[in-house]
Amino acid sequence: MMWRYVAGAAAALLMVAAGLVLFNARARPDPVLPEQPLSVPAQAAAAGDDPLPDAAPEASQRAREEKRFDRYDKDRDGRITRDEYLLQRRKAYAKLDTNGDGRLSFDEWAAKTVTKFTGADADKSGSVTRTEFATTAPKRKARPRVNCPPATPAVRNDEG
What we know:
Layout: H1 2-26, H2 40-46, H3 64-72, H4 82-96, H5 106-109, H6 111-120, H7 130-134
C-alpha cells in the first residue's frame, strides 16, 4: 500500500523535471535586440564628448519647508503665530466678503459660480444647454507629446 505513494511521488517529480527540461529548451540565453541608431547622448559619448556634468547639481541652501515656513512667519521671529498662520485665509475671506460686513452671504460665497454660470448661459435664458455646459469644463494643461520612433519587430534567429 505504501508503494502507491512512493510511485505517485516519483511520477510527480518526473513530470516536473520533464517540464523544466522542455521549458529551458525553448528559452534563449540572450535576447536578440533590433539594431537602432545611436541616440544623441550615445553619439556624443562615442565621439568622446561627455554630455553629462562631472558632479550632480547642488541643492539650494534652504529646503522647501524652510521657504514655506518663512512665507508664513511674517515677523521673522522663528515662530508662526495663529494670526500669521490664518493670514492667507483672512485675505481669501476678505476677497469673498464683497460688502465688507464680516459675514459671508450665500451670494457672496457663490459669486464665482454665479459668474461662471452667467458666462456659460450664452443665450441668457436662465438655463444652460449641453453645449453651453461644455464651456464650463476646467481647462487642462496640455501635456507635451513625446515623439518616439516606431518600434521595429525583433528578428528571431531560432528558425532554421
